[in-house]
Design brief:
The protein is an alpha+beta fold. Helix content is 59%, strand content 10%. The longest helix is centred in the first third of the chain and has 40 residues. The protein is globular, with a radius of gyration of 31 Å.
């Protein structure tokens, strides 16, 4: 049998067909690839990649929403004018989302993007069958999507691996000095570009004909019957035994059980969807038994899930993740009741209900974010005036959550100061500071405004002192340079046959330098940090652009006093020092100290 490779003409014809059928989707794939390339290595040091990352996320949303629109238009034979009207509407929705969502500033918007992506991907699964009852066509269509996705992922993985190995070979054989950014950009081109177009090329053209297709892939049956369902049965047994253990010991379930039950439910429902066409056929007794008793066995698991959710929410209130967990628990309860009581058992209800619930969780008073914000504010109001150590720790926890997820303005009810104006002012520094830095500045401001003591010994309080301009240690005028790492308790070398030893003193804020039998001398690292602290407080040092609490100093400012021995002079020059410069206690400051640099030797 001869294998005929596709010609360039046939490949171009396939691409042209995809471009004609899904023009906006192909354009979005190319634009997302370009944005990814830009985000990997922006041309300027002060460039903010936040808008590029946001564009990539919104492009994914737009692509799936537009795909749903086009598939719906094809099945219902809408005219070009109506189809382009729906396309324009989808583009406007996603353009609005681009300006509304700021995942680089608020963690809540990361959740929003994830929920919208989940909802729009599910919309692709049922959009062509809105208003129709073609269950077999629906299954065959989603089978095609599922297999096409797996094939696209396989082809993209092989293509990327092959090209990456080729680049590595060129790099090794010709000393081409290919940077890691090239590989990331190659990955972007293959996944966002090639894989997307390849997936679109395999979507069925005649969706109505799928209703007459009753084929079932043998490989899918073997995988589901002999791999997926047995695994689900094992997990079910484990969960049921754990539920018996809870009943006997009369104790509340552990938090992890919620994820296990959700995982079992997801893969169980997926298994039922995969075996839907053959579950009632002769010769598939094991499959028929699983499909019959799956929802019956879900009853005790759903009860356990609701109990676990109630335990977590009752103690800590609602957050976005707990909101999603609660909604999924209620959804599983209703879904179990539906499939146990309904004779029709419409499998389209699964993606439709999940898609709608995801949309409802994004915006509005019922959304995950409104409910979570209200719940945590209520939690904070109950303890805001308490000075008990436990309540103070809880105050810090709630404030950290609210600011990180919903911004500084979410605390407006607790102060008369205009937090929205303050937050806008802080966010304008995004171009010159890191996201992490601005987020921590907001949290620190919230603690200060509400007069909540910060948690001591937090690494986020550290500052980093580095050589200006990322310069290397200048060794001019010295004869020998010995690398020094702060984590090493002791470093020993020989200088002209004389043993030279560096040892940490106490917590490491000082270093003892010994040369042979001569008296030891000490180098005070904290002294350098204390001097830098005074410069920072006096406003003479500025934060390095695109960083968080990183300050640049000259080599003279990061050099110790000279240690003089009979045969040589030694100076410690630090390329970086990481510590708490505001700490009064030297021992605590030294405990958080880390540094690296060079011990420079000049012979006499």
């Amino acid at each position: 049998m001869k294998i005929k490779l596709p010609s360039l003409q046939s490949l171009w014809s396939s691409f042209a067909a995809v471009l004609k059928r899904f023009p906006l989707q192909v354009l979005l794939a190319l634009l997302a690839t370009a944005a990814w390339w830009y985000a990997v290595d922006p041309p300027g040091e002060d460039d903010n990649i936040g808008p590029a990352i946001r564009f990539i996320c919104v492009s994914n949303l737009a692509l799936t929403l537009l795909l749903s629109v086009d598939l719906y238009a094809e099945v219902n034979k809408l005219g070009k004018r109506r189809q382009w009207f729906l396309r324009l509407l989808a583009v406007l929705v996603c353009a609005g989302l681009y300006f509304l969502l700021h995942p680089e500033l608020y963690k809540a918007d990361i959740y929003r993007i994830a929920l919208l992506a989940f909802s729009f991907h599910l919309l692709v699964a049922f959009a062509p069958f809105i208003g129709k009852s073609s269950l077999n066509g629906f299954w065959q269509y989603n089978k095609t999507l599922f297999l096409r996705f797996l094939i696209s992922a396989l082809y993209a993985g092989v293509l990327f691996a092959g090209l990456a190995i080729a680049l590595s070979a060129i790099n090794a054989l010709f000393n081409a000095d290919i940077s890691s950014n090239v590989y990331v950009r190659l990955f972007a081109l293959v996944t966002a570009g090639f894989a997307t177009v390849f997936f679109l090329a395999g979507l069925p053209l005649d969706l109505k004909a799928l209703e007459e297709d009753h084929s079932y892939p043998r490989g899918l049956q073997v995988f589901t019957q002999y791999v997926l369902i047995p695994l689900m049965s094992i997990y079910l047994l484990i969960l049921l035994v754990y539920e018996v253990k809870i009943a006997l010991e009369w104790q509340l379930p552990k938090g992890m059980v919620s994820l296990l039950i959700l995982g079992y439910s997801v893969f169980g429902i997926l298994s039922l969807l995969l075996i839907y066409p053959i579950k009632d056929k002769e010769g598939y007794g094991w499959i028929r038994l699983f499909s019959k008793f799956f929802y019956v066995m879900m009853i005790p698991l759903v009860a356990l899930l609701l109990l676990a959710v109630w335990k977590r929410v009752g103690i800590y209130g609602i957050t976005e993740s707990r909101y999603i967990l609660t909604v999924l628990a209620v959804w599983l309860t209703l879904l179990t009741a539906y499939f146990l009581l309904s004779r029709k058992q419409n499998i389209m209800m699964i993606p439709i209900s999940l898609s709608l619930l995801s949309l409802l969780a994004v915006y509005g008073p019922q959304s995950a974010f409104s409910v979570s914000r209200y719940s945590q504010r209520l939690r904070l109001k109950k303890i805001i005036h308490s000075k008990a150590p436990k309540d103070v720790a809880e105050q810090r926890e709630v404030i950290y959550y609210l600011v990180r997820n919903h911004g500084l303005k979410s605390l407006q009810d607790f102060t008369k100061r205009d937090l929205e104006a303050l937050e806008d002012k802080m966010e304008t520094k995004m171009i010159k500071s890191s996201r992490y830095g601005i987020e921590n500045d907001k949290i620190d401001s919230a603690y200060a405004i509400l007069k909540i003591a910060k948690e001591k010994n937090s690494y986020s309080d550290n500052v980093e002192l580095i050589l200006a301009g990322g310069a290397m240690v200048n060794v001019q005028g010295f004869d020998l340079a010995i690398p020094i790492e702060g984590y090493a308790p002791e470093t020993e070398v020989k200088v002209n046959g004389l043993p030279l030893k560096l040892q940490k003193v106490g917590e490491g804020g000082r270093v003892k330098l010994t040369a042979g039998v001569e008296p030891a001398q000490e180098i005070d690292v904290l002294k350098i940090a204390r001097k830098a602290s005074l410069l920072i407080k006096a406003g003479q040092l500025k934060v390095k652009p695109k960083s968080y609490r990183t300050y640049e100093l000259s080599q003279a400012q990061l050099s110790s006093d000279a240690a003089v021995f009979s045969g040589f002079t030694a100076v410690m020059v630090f390329s970086s020092i990481d510590t708490k410069i505001d700490e009064v206690d030297d021992q605590v400051m030294a405990r958080w100290l880390n540094y690296k640099g060079m011990l420079l030797i000049r012979f006499k």
